[in-house]
Amino acid sequence: MENTPLFWLGFVAFVIGLLLLDLLVFNRQAHEIKLREALGWSVFWVALSLGFNLLVYRTMGPQAGLQWLTGYLVEKALSVDNLFVFLLIFSYFKVPAQYQHRILFWGVLGALVLRAVFILAGAALLARFHFLLYLLGAFLVYTGIRMGLSNNDPEIDPEHNPVVRFLSRHLPITRQLEGGRFFIRKDGLRFATPLFVVLVMVETTDVVFAADSIPAILAITRDTFVVFTSNVFALLGLRAMYFALASMMRLFHYLHYGLSLILVFIGTKILLENVLPIAMPMALCVVGGLLALSVLASVLWPKREL
């Protein structure tokens, strides 16, 4: 597997093909994604991701393969917070279940473009200014501690959200949904629908979460190919994971503690790399172990309903 412009073009074409197949064939008709369908798609995306991970392992070596898997697990785990926020946004705007997949599709597509920009810019800065790596480590430790001390419930107030207020002032927006459309034309004027507002909120929310996940993966490896492709495969399965876990996310109430410890661990790994280097297999075991323990703790000690 050669990291060449031709291969990058092929990979991007492959991803676009998967997205188009999803939108134009399997989900051409808007419908509610049931648990069985969501679980089936989740298994498909995970299997496809692990298959690509095996390809990286066989062609780029064990180190790159382990880095890819670690980055994939970290992005998947941090995506759980995204899913909970998506659930709150959909609930607030009363988005029918049959249109949620369409919003998440375009949301993921936009996220892929934004992540590519963040990754390329971040990798270029780290390659040029090495001292930024230690600032990155300190930032991850701080973010992990802040996450661990904060309330598990994310704060979201769409009514006072600056993005929503900006759109309301600068765009004519219909008061009700117009099917699954983002824009409609009335009396010769183009109106945005509430679905478009929801889409913009989903996109801006991902930018906020990328501020945590991208530094975490760049801390694992600065190979832009490994970082970007692991991010892509984690995001491709995000929609299916949302519908599979939408009704179960509140059960994993200890997960954010596991995520906070993972960020602290990765940040500490960077800060101590010249004093106490940690091998990638050990790092992968720590990340996987913290995730497993936080999920197990959530199951053994369920949250009490008030």
Structure notes:
It contains 11 helices and 2 strands; from the N terminus they run ααααααββααααα. The chain is an all-alpha fold and 306 residues long. The protein has a domain of 205 residues. A two-stranded antiparallel ribbon has the order 1-2. It is globular, with a radius of gyration of 20 Å. The protein starts with a helix and ends in a 6-residue tail after the last helix.
In short:
This protein is mostly helical and 306 residues long. The chain is 73% helix and 3% strand. Helix 3 packs antiparallel against helix 7, helix 3 packs across helix 9 and helix 5 runs antiparallel to helix 10.
Straight-line distance between termini: 54 Å
Number of strands: 2
Q: What percentage of amino acids are in beta strands?
A: under 5%
Unreliable stretches (pLDDT < 50, length at least 5) are none
Q: What's the helical proportion of residues? A: over 70%
Structural class from helices and strands? mainly alpha
Largest sheet: 2 strands, antiparallel
Report the C-alpha radius of gyration, rounded: 20 Å
Mean pLDDT: 79
- The shape, in one word, is globular
Number of helices: 11
N-to-C SSE series?
HHHHHHEEHHHHH
Going across the biggest sheet, name each strand in turn.
1-2
